[in-house]
């Protein structure tokens, strides 16, 4: 079983639920990152709000960093599920 194969989530009901949970988390993180960058951009127009603006940009960047981490965690979990199924097929 290879990582980042688009049809992993079609293998079973458990895989579909797992895929849905990760997609919801990814969408929430995406939305939070966009909100942080929007707030940071709006606050950056006021020079006296440069500090809070920078914090919003930092948090937005951290959310963007979380996105590929979530994808990788999902793929690793799919890989582990695949390994278990393969081992079960080989068992006597």
UniProtKB/TrEMBL annotation:
<keyword id="KW-1133">Transmembrane helix</keyword>
<dbReference type="InterPro" id="IPR025424">
    <property type="entry name" value="YrhK_domain"/>
</dbReference>
<keyword id="KW-0472">Membrane</keyword>
<dbReference type="Pfam" id="PF14145">
    <property type="entry name" value="YrhK"/>
</dbReference>
<feature type="domain" description="YrhK">
    <location>
        <begin position="21"/>
        <end position="76"/>
    </location>
</feature>
<feature type="transmembrane region" description="Helical">
    <location>
        <begin position="21"/>
        <end position="43"/>
    </location>
</feature>
<protein>
    <submittedName>
        <fullName>YrhK-like protein</fullName>
    </submittedName>
</protein>
<keyword id="KW-0812">Transmembrane</keyword>
<feature type="transmembrane region" description="Helical">
    <location>
        <begin position="49"/>
        <end position="66"/>
    </location>
</feature>
């Amino acid at each position: 079983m290879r990582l980042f194969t688009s049809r992993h989530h079609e293998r079973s009901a458990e895989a579909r639920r797992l895929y849905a949970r990760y997609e919801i988390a990814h969408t929430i993180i995406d939305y939070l990152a966009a909100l942080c960058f929007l707030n940071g951009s709006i606050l950056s127009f006021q020079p006296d709000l440069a500090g809070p603006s920078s914090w919003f940009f930092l948090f937005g960047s951290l959310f963007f960093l979380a996105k590929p981490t979530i994808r990788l965690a999902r793929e690793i979990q799919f890989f582990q599920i695949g390994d278990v199924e393969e081992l079960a097929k080989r068992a006597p």
